[in-house]
Each structure stands twice: as C-alpha cells, then as structure tokens.
Design brief:
about 210 residues; 4 helices; alpha+beta; 8-stranded mixed β-sheet; Nucleoside Triphosphate Pyrophosphohydrolase; 2 domains
Length: about 210
C-alpha cells in the first residue's frame, strides 16, 4: 500500500510544553492535507513526548525457550489491567547510544544475559494516537540457563522477576490472553512467524 502523503503535507503552527518531569506533554497547533486534497482546519493536539525504546525478546534456540520479565506497571493497573506485566526486556535508549547498544545493555541489566546474536524484527509506535514514543524490537540469541531469578537497577527503582518459558508454553499463554502489553504481543506474534527461520540460522553451524 503506497503512502498517501509525505512530510510536506503537515504544518506545525505552534508548540508549547505544558508539563515536563518524568514525562513531558506538549501542545501543538497543526494542520495537514486531507484525502480530498484540501487542508484541514487548525487542530489543537496534546502529545506525550517520549524517546526511543529498545525491546528485546531473548530466545535460546538450543533449548527452544524464551526469557520474559515481570514487573509492576502502574498505568495498566490504573487502566483496569494487571498491575504486574510479563514482558520482553526493554529500556530507554540513553543519550549517545544506539538501540543495538541499549538492547544489549538492557539484556544484561534486566535478565543477566549476554547477547550471542541479535536480529532486528521491526520498528513501531505503540500508541500513535497520543504518544511520540518509538520502539525498536529485537530478538536476541541467548543461553537461557544463565538467566537470573531477580534483577533490576536500584537507582531506577526496578523490581524484576525473570521467567524462562518453553516456546510452546509462551504461545499457549498468548492464545489464552495472558499477555496484555502491546510490545509483548507484537514481539511474540512476530517471533511466531519467524521462529523456524531463526532456529535454522542460529543452529545451522552448531
């Protein structure tokens, strides 16, 4: 499907920061081309401004196991979901880092794992209606037997439990609706389509 417009079809008429603390909210005045060919009226929109996130699904192709992490998430609790979410490893890309470096760092910090190989799955916006955050999703080859039980950085107030699951068990939990976070669903659904290819590539020389 061909793109309808490029960046010239958007005009930012004004931008104001309304709040900046742990997160930042900006108000925009904007107009854009419409599908009929004319311009929209001036729109007033508030956006949560967030940076780039590296998301990593750790996979052991020898044991055919995935490693997931569980931690407290206030937004899902407030929204009526589970307060403790089971997710891939993930974290902000720090200034001066690229997402590959961040992915490997987060893998060590959140699961105690070393990256043996890394494949980029996709780049996506988890909430494009109101959030500028962008995520790079990777699948990392790991030795799942080296995963720690508990992890997290004290200075970031992280409290993380690490779980190692056979792939088929993870797929069964996916089908049962156990996972609620968008990045988790995207990671597992992508992995389900590419699992056999990854195993063949990563085990071909073993």
């Amino acid at each position: 499907m061909k793109k309808s417009f490029d960046e010239t079809a958007v005009e930012i008429l004004g931008r104001t920061t309304l709040h900046q603390d742990w997160m930042r909210v900006d108000r925009f005045r904007v107009r854009h081309r419409r599908f009929a060919g004319d311009w929209s009226p001036e729109l007033d929109r508030e956006i949560l401004i967030r940076g780039e996130i590296a998301v990593v699904l750790p996979y052991d192709p020898v044991r055919d196991e995935l490693v997931l992490v569980e931690q407290f998430r206030l937004p899902t609790f407030v929204g009526g979901g589970d307060a403790w979410q089971v997710e891939p490893v993930a974290g902000m890309v720090d200034p001066g880092e690229d997402s590959v470096t961040a992915a490997k760092r987060e893998l060590a910090e959140e699961a105690g794992l070393q990256c043996e190989a890394l494949v980029k799955a996709c780049r996506f916006f988890p909430s494009p209606g109101g959030n500028s955050q962008v995520m790079d999703l990777y699948v990392a080859r790991v030795d799942s037997s080296a995963a720690v039980d508990l992890a997290g950085m004290d200075h970031e107030d992280e409290d993380i439990r690490v779980a190692t699951l056979p792939v088929e068990e993870a797929f069964a939990l996916l089908d049962a609706g156990r996972f609620q976070g968008g990045p988790t669903l995207i990671a597992l659904l992508w992995f389900a389509r590419h699992r056999e290819r990854l195993r063949a590539e990563w085990l071909g020389g073993d």
